[in-house]
């Protein structure tokens, strides 16, 4: 029989339908048996009044276990007493497609590590699955904006011949008779695409960091959203692209999932106003120091505490959850960030903070070969043609337009949008220094 | 000044505009200088009539090199003699944003390996860039269908704790104090998502194969399109999903790029009729043997020659470029493919051939724990709880619905859609046993 989704049942009252899903809860009494069946659209009560001898259906229900996969055929009956939508199914036939072993390995009290061990069971809870419905919507909105803006969707390689950006924090792969490395970001490749005449690059893909970090914001593998734009007039073009993309994403999330997010996670999705506030790093540091941050006065970069403090400060003043921090010192940015025309100690770069967490790093890039080589050498890097940067630097020798872009952590966006306690809850299967399973 | 794209120039005749792009060709004569400038939307002729002494612009143009990145400001003038759209730009100002070194490392005669070495220069040719415009369209259409069909977009991990599907052909990664492996497909993970109550899974992401293959169809890293559908009635549901997805993709490709593909690559994009032809493996083998294939009569699976022959045969008879081959013997399919109810030696599986090349493998999966374990053991695999399949098999212990899905190679689709000679031309940066650069 054709499957009817639980969410469609209100329109099916009076009809006989087939519902497919999992046994959410069981209440098996001597006279009446209640089975709540759950699919990805909701839950419905299946109510069977026990017959006497020969009540095969009643016997079957008596042997059911929670989380078994079942197919239920029966009549949809309005019943105002039933909490789940004021209707129930009076079953004619129930098929146990796949019985669950009795005694589930996780329950409501289970701690986070054990929940990750049994992630597929954890995911059956509607509020967990919601994360990936939101993810789907976020990506759809981002791609919509990317398409409007003329982006080409690329898949840059994750296997690299040299550990180019920085030797540390890179995973090494056995590659036939040699070594390969897992890409820590699509940075160099997306710039290569710009050198290849692709006007605007968009990619959503995995990023690998061999970082032994155990914070709630770090993972060794995560999904990055990367954008690179050719022929920009300045870094402002990059920020303006990103804020429009995020606004569209949150708009669509609020529209489709806002009510559910608030119900399950207690978070209201705020659609941000454009433009987002902008603050130079010099101003930010001054404001933060006034508020007591970095009492030694030695920090050149924001630390997580500074990010939280600054975000809170901006939100208090402007009511805005986002803030672009711009003009980071060259000392704390990679060699390929463009230096400001007025002050070579400052870069045309930005971070985007949301609710106290950095979700993006972006910049205009240095596109002039000579300056780029000089900046690499200044950072103590090997800029020779046979060195690890050789192939990358080649891209600047035959006409490279001005360009810039950003990288955004998708998991962090989801974590913040839903108010999840950790990035572990915002990805399908978390990967960390101690976790490669399941 | 605001950039005007070359493709927009016909609407700008009589106006002064700024165009940004690369020097495609130079013809510098004593009286007139012609510079053809190319951006991602087309090419335009810039025509400067040389003045006498003090013609600074003429001097600048005299020093230009091919492939330099330039910004040209000038008046758009209709000129029916000009081949490039009957118009030209009379320049007022030309800025060389990034000069190309003289003497490009590749030219029209360059062989494939050297072209790959300088991939970014190769990509500047419009027919090369077209591949990625088509890719963007294909993905957009596929995602459209996936969204209509209620798919959730997932990112499954590429780092795995065990080399689960098969020990061979897997890349090993140094992972802190232990080993990790690169996923050869999202197969087990997308089934885990089904076990997690995600109704329909969609993913586009990288896939890694440590296969020392040097054919035109193989790469060590490629982009896979993966779909997995819960609660199917049979493998037919999976094929029907895939054919609709491919039809929509080719429809949109034909609409947006058909003319350009035909012009640049000489291939007509055919929008396939639904349903695609279907042929059981038993029939296929019989037909092929009648045509002289496998004279020893020993093959149980199709080889590339068989695929070509079969495709040609079906196209001759039906006029259709695609064919689903169904019901492969269990001996040549993985342990998790569902066996046919009538004949356990046959699986509920399919391959999809297009123009003689296999682009997809799909199947309904065995969802019953006991049978799955038995089938794994039958293939000589360790099905114990601590073995490499332990975590995967756990997913079947607590209620697994009937499900099935497929994996599609995006590069192969592009290669065939454009008639490219090799997969190397269908990916941004090819990775093979001998190639990790650039």
UniProtKB/TrEMBL annotation, chains A, B:
Binding positions for ATP per the UniProt entry: 209-211, 358, 409-412
CC terms in the record's Gene Ontology section: aminoacyl-tRNA synthetase multienzyme complex; cytosol
Keywords: Aminoacyl-tRNA synthetase, ATP-binding, Cytoplasm, Ligase, Nucleotide-binding, Protein biosynthesis
Residues reported to bind L-aspartate: 165, 209, 361, 365
One GO MF term: RNA binding
Protein localization: Cytoplasm
Major enzyme class: ligase
Region (Aspartate): 187-190
Catalytic reactions on record: tRNA(Asp) + L-aspartate + ATP = L-aspartyl-tRNA(Asp) + AMP + diphosphate
One GO process term, biological-process aspect: aspartyl-tRNA aminoacylation
EC number: 6.1.1.12
Signal peptide: none
Aminoacyl-transfer RNA synthetases class-II family profile domain: residues covered: 132-438
Family stated for the protein in its record: Belongs to the class-II aminoacyl-tRNA synthetase family. Type 2 subfamily.
Cited PANTHER family: ASPARTATE--TRNA LIGASE, CYTOPLASMIC (PTHR43450:SF1), ASPARTYL-TRNA SYNTHETASE (PTHR43450)
Function as written in the Swiss-Prot or TrEMBL entry: Catalyzes the attachment of L-aspartate to tRNA(Asp) in a two-step reaction: L-aspartate is first activated by ATP to form Asp-AMP and then transferred to the acceptor end of tRNA(Asp).
Assembly mode: Homodimer.
Protein name, per record: Aspartate--tRNA ligase
């Amino acid at each position: 029989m054709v499957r009817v989704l639980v969410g469609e049942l209100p329109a099916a009252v009076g009809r006989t339908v087939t519902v497919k899903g999992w046994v959410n809860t069981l209440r098996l009494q001597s006279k009446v048996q209640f089975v709540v069946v759950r699919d990805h659209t909701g839950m419905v009560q299946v109510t069977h009044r026990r017959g006497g001898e020969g009540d095969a259906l009643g016997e079957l229900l008596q042997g059911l276990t929670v989380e078994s996969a079942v197919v239920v055929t029966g009549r949809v009956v309005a019943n105002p007493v039933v909490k789940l939508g004021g209707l129930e199914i009076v079953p004619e036939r129930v098929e146990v497609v796949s019985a669950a072993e009795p005694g589930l390995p996780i329950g409501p009290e289970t701690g986070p590590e054990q929940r990750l061990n049994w992630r597929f069971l954890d995911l059956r809870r509607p509020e967990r699955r919601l994360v990936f419905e939101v993810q789907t919507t976020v990506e759809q909105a981002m791609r919509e904006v990317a398409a409007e803006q003329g982006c080409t969707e690329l898949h840059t390689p994750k296997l690299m011949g040299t550990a180019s950006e920085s030797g540390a924090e890179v995973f090494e792969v056995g590659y036939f008779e040699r070594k390969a490395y897992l890409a820590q970001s699509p940075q160099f490749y997306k710039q290569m695409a710009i050198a290849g005449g692709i006007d605007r690059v968009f990619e959503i893909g995995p990023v690998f960091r061999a970082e032994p970090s155990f914070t709630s914001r770090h993972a060794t593998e995560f999904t990055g959203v990367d954008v690179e734009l050719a022929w920009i007039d300045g870094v402002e073009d990059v920020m303006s692209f990103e804020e429009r993309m995020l606004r569209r994403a949150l708009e669509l999330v609020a529209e489709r999932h806002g009510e559910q997010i608030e119900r399950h996670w207690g978070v209201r999705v705020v659609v941000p106003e454009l433009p987002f506030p902008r603050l130079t790093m010099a101003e930010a540091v001054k404001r933060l120091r006034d508020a007591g941050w970095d009492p030694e006065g030695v920090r050149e970069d924001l630390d997580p505490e500074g990010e939280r403090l600054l975000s809170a400060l901006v939100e208090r003043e402007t009511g805005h959850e986002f803030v672009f921090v711009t003009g980071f010192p060259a000392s704390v940015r990679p060699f390929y960030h463009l230096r400001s025309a007025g002050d070579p100690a400052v870069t045309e770069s930005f971070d985007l903070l949301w609710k106290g967490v950095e979700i993006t790093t972006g910049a205009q890039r240095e596109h002039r070969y000579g300056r780029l080589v000089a900046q690499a050498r200044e950072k103590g890097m090997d800029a020779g043609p046979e060195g690890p940067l050789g192939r990358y630097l080649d891209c600047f020798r035959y006409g490279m337009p001005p360009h810039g872009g950003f990288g955004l952590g998708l998991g962090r966006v989801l974590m913040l949008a839903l108010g999840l306690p950790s990035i572990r809850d915002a990805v399908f299967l978390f990967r960390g220094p101690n976790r490669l399973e399941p």
